[in-house]
Write a structure and sequence with these properties.
Elements lengths: L6 H13 L3 H14 L4 H13 L3 H14 L4 H13 L3 H14 L4 H13 L3 H13 L3 H10 L4
Length: 154
Amino acid sequence: AVKGLSASDWFEKGYKFGIAGNHKEALNAFNKAIELNPKFALAYGNRGVAYSDLGNYQQAINDYTKAIQLNPKYADAYNNRGAAYYKLGNHRQAINDYTKAIQLNPQLAIAYKNRGLAYNDLGNKQKFIADAKIAAKLGDKAAQDFLRKKGIGW
């Protein structure tokens, strides 16, 4: 291990590993960042992403929850925790988290798209289309393509 790296240095390493798809390396780097700074909300949030990418959704939820406790305005952590709940089949909890993410950041297109997909899985087509339209307006390409194929404007 390299001596003298700060929590921020380890965070940067973890982030780069994550972008490159090296999720285990990312996890190790975020662990070191958190060890050096136990109140590093972004490190918990990004470690949660690494856990999600490795398929460990419950551990991801734990990290997103810790990140939210440290920074209650962390919209991406709510969105990502919602996605982990969604993967575990807990659509209602996912919708609650996506809604909180949207309240904190009304420009977070992915949260509208994710919430719409959860509504769709619960059979609520109206809310699905409404959220898809907002995601499309905010620039989400997948939502735009879907609506275009259906002939629905936004």
